[in-house]
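User: I'm preparing a small set of examples for a lab meeting where we compare how different chains pack in three dimensions. I only have the primary sequence for this one, and I'd like the structure in token form so I can line it up with the others. Please keep the answer compact; I'll paste it straight into my notes.
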Amino acid sequence: MKAENGSVTPLMKQYNVIKGKHPGALLLFRVGDFYETFGEDAIKASKILDIVLTKRGAGSSSEVALAGFPHHSLDTYLPKLVRAGERVAICDQLEDPKSVKGIVKRGVTELVTPGVSFNDQVLERRSNNYLAAVHFGKTETGISFLDVSTGEFITAQGDKSYISKLLQSLAPAEVLFCKREKETFIENYGPDFRYYALEPWVFNHDTAYESLTRHFKTASLKGFGIEGMAEGIIAAGAILHYLSETQHHEISHIATISRLEEDKYVWLDRFTVRNLELLFPQHPEGVPLIQVLDQTVTPMGGRLLKKWVVLPLKDVAQIRRRLDTVEALTKHSGLLAELTQHLKQINDLERLISKVAVRRVNPRELVQLAKALEAILPIQKALALSDIPALQRLAAQLAPCDGLREEIRNVLKPEPPMLTNQGNMINEGVNAELDELRSIAFSGKDYLAQLQQREVKNTGIGSLKIAYNKVFGYYLEVSNAHKDKVPASWIRKQTLVNAERYITEELKTYEEKILNAEERIFTIEFGLFNDLVLHALDYVAQVQQNARVIGIIDCLSSFAGIALSSHYVKPDVSDSHVLEIKSGRHPVIEKQLPLGEAYVPNDIFLDHEAQQIIIITGPNMAGKSALLRQTALIVLMAQIGSFVPAAAANLGIIDKIFTRVGASDNLSKGESTFMVEMTETASILNNLSDRSLVLMDEIGRGTSTYDGISIAWAIVEHLHNHPKFRAKTLFATHYHELNQLAEDLPRVKNFNVSVKEAGGKILFMRKLVEGGSEHSFGIHVAQMAGMPNNVVLRADEIMHHLEKEKVSEQAPQQKMKEVPKSNYQLSMFELHDPQLVRLKELMENLDINTITPVEALLKLNELKMLLQGKSVKH
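Assistant: Understood. Below is the structure token output for the 874-residue chain.
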């Protein structure tokens, strides 16, 4: 915007300088009582926030788009901008406009991004809000995650597939990487993440190492177990740099950094996390596992459970400790109910104490913090008095924080205002001057009445009165009849016709107090509140520890609750190589069944010696995919410490779960279904271990039948004959030819999901039985799906022709050449359906020359009943 002489106004000069320092951010520029946006920012903001877009300097050569909102509405509008993926620079006035001549000094006080926010409207209570940084090294890739709202800081490194799995599992809100590596990042991990590219110099090992040791005040990083993780250190250093760049300097709550060790957790590649629908459904109407498992009642528990689900344990002792604790809680239902009741009273300890650390906590949140700490006391007592060693150990890790609780209770009112400038947040009796000022400010009339009565008594002037005007302030008025009684210490200010007006030192002092009382009250209250926040800073580490322990108690209580309500059993987890599930159920599907319909359970047995690979045949819709998924989910649930949906489960530790289940086309990258299927399968075969669980569903269906059979056959042979590893495998297929493998390979067994055929219809029994299946019933399924009748009839005709020719030595191309030509007048009786064959027989045996009208009607009814699938009595 330009001034009248054509030059840019001082305000816009200032704006352009600040905007130039943050070119990638949407700048909220404080002007008086409004935050304004200009130019492209204004156009964006008006669309996202649905606010009016106007113009500044309309009609002039310096016309600029303008959109703004009142400063007190920042908490309403800021989350909308951040959720829309914008990085938002908040530019505030750094001086009081009343005390400045000319332009007010302004500067960016905070840069809020999708991955760096403390705003409750931006954050989801039950999910972490991670900022991630990725660094591509020569041989390995480093990655780091920080949730600035909780202080959790982790780092890891590994190959690109491991990094991909972590990105998908932890789902960061924003990812940082080097400008030079943008193409590499998008090629490996896709364009769907919100990202920000940093300058190459940020990704330097020495710079990052120094940054981390300076922040943690340590000489090295050995104590965190990350000393040798060069790429992980660089990624973590980039995150600390970004915090500084976004004006986040108060970060004492980030007190440690931990290593995410790949070897400690079950390998779940990104395909498996997606295919098993652990955290997110693949379809809008789907239900992920977490939705069924999560009965946590605190935000800390909800966030921790998500991490447990994507990071199942491999350590038998640790898994058993969790399972034993869950078992103990299921046997002490009274204790479980008591714990749940107290846990419900605990607010978000982790994020509340983080707000204390960054000086963004408000009075109401401090009271919530005190209430949460108070609710910990009965939990600690109940756990300590239980006879469950694991719970007693957890009780010992809880810190009561008595000093902090008492200080908050003593200083703050039970229901203080949200904002510090609203006043009336400090208790009576905390500060004598504050109490006096409140008395003056809110009891002024009483004070003046007392003063007037006292002076009437002292002077004997009965008509004395106290009044106020803007010129003199407060004054005493005495009629001329009594002016000889006025004390010498009074100072005359004005003479009227019938009276004199005076002031006294006491009245003047009172006047100054009452006029400055509100401002002074605010200053004192704000100072006392800040002292309280500083006092709370001493408890950050203790409260963070409490939050971690409460999260664990909440998760284990949730497991116990769902075990009781859903009839889950404790699995026997060991170092054996046996995977045995008796009457296993799918934890998600069984919850979605219509009322009164029971889930059909199934047994699974896999080991290294007799039954390493099960080939499961059966028609589509019979439940093969559900069986595969439920096996993986039962293993996963057991290894996170949960009871499982089965009658019994004996599970040897699984260290990798691979799934090739369901279509997952990546057509946007120009890859076909078959190409994606083969890529995922190759990833499985190249990463096998001796304790892997491999689930493959309909491998090879994306290509021609004979190609598909050949590929599937070769994969089964490879898994069986692997020189090092005997990966336990469930292989669902519609290629019945694969049943032949069981005759040649000793550890391959055939099973099928049984189907009953009755009256030409098929009934899905959903029961796994030994032996292969001969038919796919695909045409029946097509008929059930509402396929046009002429298509169903033609498909059946072709199938029967091909099945007849199976015994011959003809080449497949020759078989197809001899398929009967399509005839749209095809007789309904050519469909090989037992009902229609019976119908044909009845019609052929009918003598229409001798039948009576009544017999004809009866015969017609019989034919109708036969078509409806009802039995006909003879």
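A couple of notes for your slides: The chain has five domains: 10-112, 131-264, 295-401+539-566, 432-531, 572-781. Confidence is low (pLDDT under 50) at residues 1-5, 664-670, 824-831.

User: Perfect, thanks.
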